[in-house]
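Suppose a classmate hands you a notebook page containing two proteins, each written out with its sequence and a corresponding row of structure tokens. How would you begin to make sense of it? This section walks through that situation. The first entry is reproduced here exactly as it would appear on such a page.
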Amino acid sequence: MHTATLSSKYQLSIPKGVRDLLNLQAGQQFTVLVKGKAIELVPMRSLREMRGILKGANTQNYRDREDRF
């Protein structure tokens, strides 16, 4: 398990093991999500990196606007 400490300037450093595992780069931006009393950091990806992520997705039973309440 990795830990981080909040500095007096309210900054966190991401441990090297996590940076290496997720291939994070300096200057990369994150989306910050609050879930109850937990904070989740989600790396923002460029459109180029997202290309093809939905390839082969099952479009059966897709809910269209007509199905909404």
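The notebook's second entry, a different protein, reads as follows.
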Amino acid sequence: MDLPLSPYTVLDLTIARAGPTAVRLLSDWGANVIRIEAPVEGDIAGNRHGPDSQNLHRNKRSLCLDLKSANGHEVFLDLVRQADILVENFRVDVKHRLGIDYGTLVEHNPALIYASIAGFGQAGPYAQRPAVDQVIQGMSGLMSITGEPERGPMRVGIAVSDTSAGMFLGQAILLALLQRQRSGEGQWVHTSLLEAMLCKLDFQAARYTMSGEVAGQEGNNHPTLSPMGVFHSADGLVNLAASTDKMFRAFCRAMDADELASDPAYASVAKRLQHREALWERVNDITRRHPTAALVERLNEAGIPCGPINDIGQAFADPQVQHLDMTRTARHPELGDFQLLRSPINMSACAQVADFARPGPELGQHSVEILKELQYSDERIDQLLAEGSVRGSQEND
């Protein structure tokens, strides 16, 4: 299938989650992704057969390469000369020590798009610090606005700073490709978990940058609109949003709540926010008389956004999720067939693939195959394998 990124070759030097998220965007849409992995001792499978690794590294090939060796580094430079994009998340000092920094590689390929991701940025007082998602969630302020008031900070239940930074870096790479079409030159694009998370604070951050307002925890209620949040139903909980004047009137009509609609305390957006605690109680008294399914049906028919609060299994069983067909099959020689989430991007001129081209690779599974594409002779390949600059085997490839 001629996918949009099929003409491009990507060298993937990333580990953890943020960098692989960026590369996954490229691999899912056809890029020839070569995952360059360092040699490790012992069991080379590790956790690569688990759902996390398979989810992050599908559609890639693996080249096991010792960048610290002279011959391994030369192989790497040969790849760089033919590549379009390189993605890395090394510490600044490490990539300079290995000779894989942008300044070095651009001399070998001026058209290379070199994409970097870091915890805190490429420079500054924290540039050398290690980072993980939860630390960034805390430092960015996200945890201070997540959770219920007076219950202490709460992390978001996914690696939101990792995945956000990965998505932003993926966008940066595509922007650089567009610019390269005009200029013929590559460039260095980079972002960080901290930059991504500050950006994702969105209107909560703008409340501070514009007026100095420091948002706090609001639990399941919207911080600036009412009624919008989680309410009790007769058999559980429901999300609903009736915050605009039009939606509030529609809610009151749908729920036969004329007395609520006529109450002057709730006559405007500002007044509903001012009296939101009392309003929340009154809306709760109404919604708890009806089962969740009935509320969802009645309120959506009235133009009020309303939905159940599913667990993950219930979410995937939902009819709309089933209609969206969000999974594709990966076929693994040892694990068999299993389902992974597809890209959420839909394009009218390019259909989603029926199945993933490859599962997550074994370490060095494609080493020899890739060296042959570089026009290396069998003798040279055997030498590289024998000395350990490259790991893999002629049999596997």
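A careful reader of the second entry would note: The longest helix spans residues 160-183.
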